[in-house]
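Field log, afternoon session.

UNIT: design team B
ACTIVITY: writing a sequence onto a fixed backbone
BACKBONE:
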């Protein structure tokens, strides 16, 4: 990996991501603009003053070649984005195109064992999930987590509310492949331990009584191979014991099955063997950043949220990337958990904050590397900026004859004024036509093509 640990890039993440080696990152967390139709600015006088980013999207924010790139790399993804335009409009389409070109690169830089968490909110989470399914594959979708970021919402205006207050964000968790590991368990709190592991044995160890799980119940069906006599005990039902005879004896030797003085069998589940409870996918226990944690950066996320993600989906020394790192919450959490990290943010102010925060919070002085250049990959880069890619965006995927949407590969580049009539190869003399329209046009003019299509009732 050509990028050093503790590097913060001040640049557009698309360029930085394109320069990063394939399969080099273990975990990506991203908290991009949400298409909230708002512009964010930090309050004047806060540490973050001057930080701002806009979150309103139109097609003019989108490079035409990105349409072609998406349609070329993932035809189904372009179709999904086109559908979002039909149901939601061009703003959503533009936002999704901006996100999709970056997510394609993120998938490329993730190791096969890697994971990605996309932080969003209900404005676009349903469309982003479709985008993610196209890029990562539906089988690599793992969880949709709801994070309760505020306990209540304030009524914003004097008008009657028409919707429930939104106090939750959504995290879409995808794996690069089935090889990605996760440890979703949390430790029990003291209160939970006392409540669940009610009993204390002769040696002072906590356990709970799980005797209901010694024998199978009649409605579980008959299992002749689990019907046996063990130390003088026979199951009265033909459904048998829960365990094989060997396992039962093993559990007895370990002290997990006990013959009580009254002759009854007891099965014990000890705290030391407890695998932990999963956090589940509703996270209502992570509070917004506390006062001492707050930098004033708009949309700052709590360190505890990032710690939970990083602990569950990476190991010591792994590389964590946050391509929209803002005031570096991910970098601080990764540093605390002894992971390596790379942060990217387009805003100059964000980078200044990152340095300040890391130096203050983690006690680092000096080793944070600030880069404004673009890294270079060893391999030859594919070219997604040909005339064909740009034209695909300019025409929004439609054939310039019949006005029908076609996949990238079915489009042909046509000279509007044919070369034999002096037309040039310049972009403004080129257009995309579907195969049928291209052969209809032949060496004729564009006007002739359109007349012909009208005559055929196609236009
Ligand atoms: C929602 S904020 C991230 C907040 C962050 N999670 C935190 O805790 O501070 C989104 C960030 O993305 C940055 N950003 C927007 N577009 C970007 C781009 N194309 N490349 C890099 N950063 C970008 C903005 O400057 C902003 O800091
Ligand atoms: Zn056509």
């Amino acid at each position: 990996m050509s990028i050093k640990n503790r590097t913060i890039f001040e640049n557009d993440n698309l360029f930085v991501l394109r320069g990063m080696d394939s399969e080099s990152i273990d975990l990506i967390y991203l908290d991009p603009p949400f298409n909230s139709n708002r512009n964010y600015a930090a309050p004047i006088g806060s540490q973050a003053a001057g930080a701002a980013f806009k979150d309103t999207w139109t097609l003019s924010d989108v490079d035409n070649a990105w349409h072609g790139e998406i349609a070329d790399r993932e035809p189904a993804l372009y179709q999904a984005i086109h559908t979002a335009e039909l149901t939601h409009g061009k703003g959503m389409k533009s936002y999704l195109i901006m996100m999709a070109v970056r997510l394609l690169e993120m998938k490329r830089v993730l190791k096969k064992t890697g994971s990605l968490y996309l932080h969003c909110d209900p404005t676009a989470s349903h469309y982003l999930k479709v985008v993610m399914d196209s890029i990562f594959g539906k089988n690599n979708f793992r969880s949709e987590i709801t994070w309760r970021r505020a306990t209540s919402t304030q009524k914003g205006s004097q008008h009657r509310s028409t919707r429930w207050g939104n106090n939750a964000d959504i995290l879409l968790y995808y794996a690069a492949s089935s090889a990605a590991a996760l440890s979703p368990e949390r430790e029990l709190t003291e209160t939970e331990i006392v409540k669940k592991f009610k009993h204390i044995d002769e040696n002072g160890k906590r356990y709970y009584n799980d005797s209901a799980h010694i024998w199978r119940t009649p409605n579980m069906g008959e299992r002749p191979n689990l019907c046996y006599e063990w130390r003088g005990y026979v199951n009265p039902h033909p459904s048998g014991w829960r365990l094989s005879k060997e396992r039962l004896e093993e559990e007895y030797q370990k002290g997990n099955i006990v013959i009580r003085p009254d002759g009854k069998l007891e099965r014990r589940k000890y705290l030391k063997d407890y695998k932990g409870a999963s956090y589940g996918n509703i996270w209502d226990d992570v509070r917004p950043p506390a006062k001492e944690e707050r930098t004033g950066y708009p949309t700052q996320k709590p360190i505890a949220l990032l710690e939970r993600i990083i602990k569950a989906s990476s190991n010591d020394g792994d590389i964590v990337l946050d391509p929209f790192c803002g005031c570096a919450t991910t970098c601080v959490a990764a540093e605390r958990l002894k992971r390596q990290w790379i942060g990217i943010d387009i805003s100059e102010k964000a980078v200044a904050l990152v340095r300040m925060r890391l130096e203050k919070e983690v006690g680092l002085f000096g080793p944070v590397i600030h880069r404004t250049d673009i890294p270079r990959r060893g391999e030859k880069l594919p070219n997604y900026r040909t005339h064909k890619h740009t034209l695909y965006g300019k025409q929004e995927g439609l054939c310039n004859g019949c006005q029908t949407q076609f996949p990238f590969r079915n489009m042909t580049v046509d000279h509007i004024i044919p070369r034999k009539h002096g037309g040039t190869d310049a972009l403004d003399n080129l257009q995309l036509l579907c195969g049928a329209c291209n052969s209809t046009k032949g060496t004729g003019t564009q006007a002739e093509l359109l007349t012909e299509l009208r005559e055929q009732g196609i236009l």
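LOG NOTE: The chain has three domains: 7-155+162-184+278-371, 190-273, 398-455.
NEXT ACTIVITY: expression trials, pending approval
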